[in-house]
Design a protein that fits this description.
There is one protein chain. This protein is an alpha/beta fold. It has one domain: Rossmann fold (3-Layer(aba) Sandwich). It has 7 helices and 10 strands.
């Protein structure tokens, strides 16, 4: 499904260049469930942002499905994101001026789903995540755990081919976290490719492969 060849990311400073990622080579097949692990500052979230096409300032080659992303203008890359990818952000990134229900509707609108069908899908997801009573609230009216649930719901609602999840259970209690990971496992069994960043060995056990990063380098793949 996707391949990275010698992908690097750096920042220019007064002292020169500071590298966040170095010579990343990654080949992920459709239907895999891959976990990216490593200490803080290893480059995990940066790598996920590149895979999600939110970060465009990198070097190397990136192939996604039939697309050579490195040859596509940065302004055109979001089209691929909206069509294929669901992203669970560590900081949620819910739209503050939209209700929970409206936030969930956004990914469906990107895929040209008819309004009546969107309403049905939103209702189903609200019920699945047990947040029906929160549908008319705004993100600022939700707890961190509730925002996390909405963020996960938004990522999966349009049934994307690829789910990228950055610490997807970080603000959830253990029962909710287990439910989210079981949902990811179910989606993966149904064919969805999943790449998660996590510090949790428990969450990592749901996947079939672990990519280890350290100081921006890929040090181990299990």
């Amino acid at each position: 499904m996707l391949k990275l060849k010698n992908v690097e990311k750096c920042y220019k400073t007064k002292a020169g260049f500071t590298y966040v990622l170095r010579q990343i080579n990654l080949d992920i097949q459709e239907g895999e469930f891959v976990t990216i692990m490593g200490p803080s500052g290893a480059g995990k979230s940066t790598l996920l942002s590149i895979l999600g096409m939110y970060d465009n300032t990198w070097e190397g080659e990136f192939f996604f499905a039939e697309h050579a992303v490195h040859k596509i203008a940065p302004k055109d890359r979001p089209i691929i994101n909206k069509r294929y990818i669901g992203f669970v952000f560590q900081q949620f990134h819910l739209l503050d001026d939209l209700t929970v229900e409206e936030n969930l509707d956004i990914p469906l609108s990107y895929r040209d789903v008819k309004k009546a069908e969107r309403q049905g899908q939103v209702a189903d997801v609200l019920d699945r995540f047990n947040i029906v009573g929160k549908k008319d609230l705004y993100p600022s009216q939700l707890s961190g755990g509730q925002q996390q649930l909405v963020a996960v719901a938004r990522a999966v609602i349009a049934k994307p081919k690829l789910i990228l999840a950055d610490e997807p259970t970080g603000n959830l209690h253990s029962d909710q976290a287990r439910e989210i990971m079981e949902l990811f496992k179910k989606l993966n069994r149904e064919g969805t490719t999943i790449i998660q960043v996590t510090h949790s060995e428990t969450n990592a056990a749901y996947g079939n492969r672990i990519v280890q990063l350290k100081d921006g380098w890929q040090v181990k793949t299990a």
